[in-house]
């Protein structure tokens, strides 16, 4: 499992989308389905 400090480096990947749900910030990647993060 990879751990990143900030979402900024993950949202720069191709296919990444930033979504806000229930007050949390998620990064979802359609091209790389295993790449999911949440913050907050």
From TrEMBL:
Keywords annotated in UniProt: Plasmid, Ribonucleoprotein, Ribosomal protein
Residue spans of biased composition, Basic and acidic residues class: 29-40
GO terms under cellular component: ribosome
The keyword DNA-binding is assigned to this record: no
Coiled-coil stretches: none
Region: Disordered, residue numbers: 1-40
Family, per entry: Belongs to the bacterial ribosomal protein bL36 family.
Name of the protein in its database record: Large ribosomal subunit protein bL36
Source organism phylogeny: Bacteria, Bacillati, Actinomycetota, Actinomycetes, Kitasatosporales
């Amino acid at each position: 499992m990879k751990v990143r400090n900030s979402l900024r480096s993950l949202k720069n990947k191709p296919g990444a989308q930033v979504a806000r749900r229930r007050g949390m910030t998620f990064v979802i990647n359609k091209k790389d389905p295993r790449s999911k993060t949440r913050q907050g």
